[in-house]
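ok so I'm stuck.
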Amino acid sequence: MLCGLVAIRSEMAAITQQSIWMAIQILMLVLVSHLALADEEGVDHVTRLPVSERQQVEHVQAYYNRMRRMPDSRLWGRKDYWATPAELLRVGAGDCEDIASAKYFALRELSVPAERLRLVYARVYDEARMRIEPHMVLWYRESADADWLILDNLRDPVEKLLQRDNLLPLLTFNEDQVAIWNVAGNERVIGEAALLKSWDALLARQKATDQVALVISIHTM
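replied:
not stuck anymore, here's the structure
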């Protein structure tokens, strides 16, 4: 019984640490956005609010693209493991799934709706490694009828999908749906998020982290 309680307390402490990391990260992104814009325009740091959504997207892209690329086998001792944003930040490295999903969760925390975000399984020509390989990126658009923009850890600029002739999208998904991307440039929805087990498990772990963070914030008010 005592061992069980210790294990639970240890797990809660780990989740709490992840929650704090994520909260600090989101606050830092917003603050950096505010200060960068103020510096560019030469205005007072305190009075220059708010930052546009597109500028927040640019800062999320720049921040997470600092993370080192490293395979799951080396980081976690597993063939495939989808890390939470807190885990990615703690080790400072991850693979394309980790970095793309961290960008997704960061933008959701910054109030970008899920319907304007897609995680995308694709094939890409990796210029550094000179080969075609599986890849994952994040898509974002400013409105329901706007062009998709790509947040890719292989390239720093946020680019339009039409600009990426080296990227072949295959499957798109968010917390609500999974869809096949066809050659006509349209999505065909084939199911809910639970269809992708790794993604569904990551969503559950992130939700648990968020719930613990909410409880902590309530008790510290």
